[in-house]
């Protein structure tokens, strides 16, 4: 099912971020977009583009499944799942690296967004990073 309007923008925005499609971002997010998740904070489209461009290469075969997506006025909400194979080193900082275990991981998440016109102007992405790390550390 192809979504249109703001629901389509939200879906395409999620997909662009997970696919690393930096070129799609200006058509989906405002120049002054602000957003956060448990492991990132952005205050502009340029910062979001940099984060998406530097996406960690530790995951392969990434698949996004949107379970629920609703738009109410100028706000949107989606619940989604991401599956991927933990296939490359995950660098936390210069001295901390988690080596890949080759296993499929599953991440459940939810995102709330605000719109300005037909673009996303703010987002809050919620997921359990401890559960994600637990799956990465599993032998």
Fold and architecture overview:
With 139 residues, the protein is an alpha+beta fold. It has one domain (5-137): Nuclear Transport Factor 2, Chain: A (Roll), CATH 3.10.450.50. 24% of the residues lie in helices and 48% in strands. The strands form two sheets. A six-stranded mixed β-sheet has the order 2-1-8-7-4-3. The longest helix has 15 residues, at 5-19. The protein is globular and about 45 Å long.
Layout of strands and helices, then pairs:
Layout: H1 5-19, E1 29-37, E2 40-42, H2 45-53, E3 59-72, E4 75-86, E5 90-93, E6 96-98, E7 104-116, E8 119-127, H3 129-137
Parallel strand pairs: 1-8
Antiparallel strand pairs: 1-2, 3-4, 4-7, 5-6, 7-8
Our measurement of the CA-to-CA distance between the termini, rounded to an integer number of angstroms, reads 38 Å
Radius of gyration: 15 Å
- In N-to-C order, the SSE pattern is HEEHEEEEEEH
Helix content: 10-25%
Largest sheet: 6 strands, mixed
Multimeric organization:
single chain
Architecture, CATH level 2?
A: Roll
How many structural domains? Answer: 1
Q: What's the average pLDDT?
A: 93
Secondary-structure-based class equals alpha+beta
CATH fold-level assignment? Nuclear Transport Factor 2, Chain: A
Q: What amount of the residues lies in strands?
A: over 45%
Q: How many DSSP E strands?
A: 8
Using the coordinates above, name the CATH class: Alpha Beta
Contiguous helical run count = 3
Strand order in space, largest sheet = 2-1-8-7-4-3
Please tell me what the overall shape is: globular
Outline the low-pLDDT stretches: none
